Amino acid sequence: MERESGPTVRRAREEFRSRKFQQYTPLNTNRARVLQEAMATKIIPPPRKVRTPERADHTKHCEYRKNHGHHTKECIGLKDRIEELIQSGQLKRFVRGGITKNEVKSGERFERGRDRREKGGKI
């Protein structure tokens, strides 16, 4: 059996292996659920199907890539896409505790909490 190669296949392999983010914002649900809702509302368009590698574990299936070899929850491409959408504000409802990684770094969440305390409200 001849192995598939070329720039498109190489790019797909690199995408699977390299992460765009060092850490990901914690979610209040699983990634499969986020994917399902984001695709239903067309926030995430259906990705192009990626060919299943020859030696892939066929007991694992990825709903995002529509192939075998890893579970949806392990999909680096999906993790990166969800993180991009969280940071752009489109998927904030899926953030655990309502705080994103960027808000922690900028102190934005702390400032909002302090404003509420000053007005006598709960955080």
* Cα separation of the termini: 61 Å
What structural class do you assign from the helix and strand content?
Answer: mainly alpha
Low-confidence stretches: 106-119
Question: How big a fraction of the residues is strand?
Answer: under 5%
User: In angstroms, what is the radius of gyration?
Assistant: 18 Å
Order of helices and strands: HHEEHHH
Counting DSSP H or I runs of 4 or more residues, the number of helices is 5
Q: Order of strands in the sheet with the most strands?
A: 1-2
Q: How would you characterize the largest beta sheet?
A: 2 strands, antiparallel
Overall number of strands: 2
What average pLDDT do the residues reach?
78
Q: What is the 3D shape? A: globular
Q: What portion of residues is helical?
A: 40-55%
Number of individual domains: 1
Keywords:
123 residues, mainly alpha, two-stranded antiparallel ribbon, 5 helices, 41% helix, globular
Protein architecture, described:
The chain has helices at 7-17, 31-40, 76-87, 101-106, 108-118, and strands at 61-62, 67-68. The protein is mainly alpha-helical and 123 residues long. The chain has one domain (7-98). A hairpin with a 4-residue loop joins strand 1 and strand 2 (67-68). Residues 106-119 have low confidence and may be disordered.
